[in-house]
Amino acid sequence: EEQKELETQASEESSVTQNQQAQETTMNDQESNGKQEVIQMNQQEEEEEQQHNEETISDDQVEHDEAPLHTNLSNEDGQETQHIINHGVKKETKQTEENTTELNSIDSFPGGENSGIPKESKESKKSWSTQADQSENQKERRNGASDGQDGRIYGYTWQMCNVTAGPDYIPCLDNDEAVRQLRSRRHHEHRERHCPEDAPTCLVPLPEGYKRPIQWPQSRDKIWYHNVPNTKLAEVKGHQNWVKVTGEFLSFPGGGTQFIHGALHYIDFIQEAVAGIAWGKHTRVILDVGCGVASFGGYLFDRDVLAMSFAPKDEHEAQVQFALERGIPAISAVMGSQRLPFPSRVFDVVHCARCRVPWHEEGGSLLLELNRVLRPGGYFVWSATPVYQKLEEDVEIWKEMSALTRDMCWKLVTIKKDQLNSVGAAIYQKPASNECYDQRKQNRPPLCKSDDDPNAAWYVPLQSCMHRIPVDEVERGSRWPEDWPGRLQTPPYWLNRSQMGIYGRSAPDDFASDYEHWKRVVSKSYLRGLGISWANVRNIMDMRAVYGGFAAAMKDLKVWVLNVVNVDSPDTLPIIYERGLFGIYHDWCESFSTYPRTYDLLHADHLFSRLKKRCKIVPVMAEIDRIVRPGGKLIVRDESGTIGEVENLLKSMHWEVHLTFSKNQEGILSAQKSEWRPDS
Fold it and tell me: Where are the annotated segments for Disordered (predicted)?
């Protein structure tokens, strides 16, 4: 009765409508008669350069620790031994930061019998399914593996992409030929991924007048106009404080259609409506549907919340590009005919503020997709005109939404009016048990069949059904995770000790060991041994995440890390979400759904050696060049031979390879993208 009163209240009430210059540490050439020397850094220099208070872990405490560097080259040609190269950055490159600090040691490096490099256990593969296994309708992968020669062509000839999208080219979203052949666009199929049969091997041009991006947090408020020279949103949404043109900048007042007076007030308004949301504690990872320029997600950082924001590449041109240029996570995606590329039951809250999605249509198929990804007991925040206006269309939509959510067993917790912004929000809660499902008089929407895998999400059509709530105490989704930040380092309760982890230990021990390994590598090597000025790094992608240990080790930096779980790898993405991080499924044989020049750093741990068994490396390197900003970085850890292939391709694209190091057939590479583009 209380819920019906809230719905009646909504139907009857009405209200009004609505450092700029990067500082990179370069590597001095260590020349001595053609030999490279490795010099130990003395203890005093280590203490002076260590600017982060990461925990130092002894070798006997951490099984994954990598051995300290202590041996000089002992073989004239360096084969089968250590090999380190410190490449000086070309002085004539204006954009290169000048810094003469030497790389005198690397505390963590690949190779060595006791290095503790994680190796995937062949036996463990029997315990883990992959996204490719789970997604029956997965798109067929491209034929043809690399013969390794492409990566060895030092003088590989690159050309500029000749496409209508120009500097904003997203290959799988700008495939005009595939879109023209679609039989229907009714479910926004033209906004979905349609990848070219042959992955592009061209380089995307820079916008005229491009400048190195403004650093976070200033970038949340303004970006360079010439980096994303689109003004349509400013013209259409400027009065709602989305974005404005201010001289050579595009400025973002922090508003949105439903929060003209600022996102922080709106964020607090939501928590006041439902105290149980508890931003930054109970609620850590949310999904923002139809995010616009992602100001909502951008200001949720102030509440220690990660938002996976998404919007289609549509007439609201460059909205996701604006978000990423500002340093806010977002992807280009649409709620259309396919499932979103996320596991089931992983988001603590799903948010929609005038997101223009017809939730009530076609049996609620799109709302049922949100139900799939929403954690049991999680909240759906719907801020839209049907909640608080009395126009005929709004009243009808509210009636249909009320009936649909009741049938889905979602509880209408509250309807709250925001007097400052003259809007309202309805907040629903997904059930945490099957009691309501079992008591329904009609099986509508229907429960999914037992063989329907809720985690299958790679090119899988939408299913208009609901999966039962897990009730077994050892099953994922039967309990809420620990409050943040405790959940970051705590193995999920549903990781069973009898289950073998990715690296061969029991799953909980594997999880803990992986975390200690990456804390060691990040603190001892990445933060002070690769010549990277982390003040210039904001948007990071881990191209082959496992447990999310790399992202977890970056927690105290002012960065965010998008964890990518490859579709042919063990499906560990639910673990990543459980610990309060976020990520996405992807196949690197295809282009990623992001705009060009949107990431400051890509991290690839043993990605390429696995990937080249299925597809060629050259298109993947072209994709990396597309994604990374000029001045952005790439860190690669892989087999030594593969490192050599990657290095040669990077050099052919005029990237500045700062460091390569290898030992016992394992290597690491650090490189920086320049502003070079082909002449044609």
Answer: 1-151
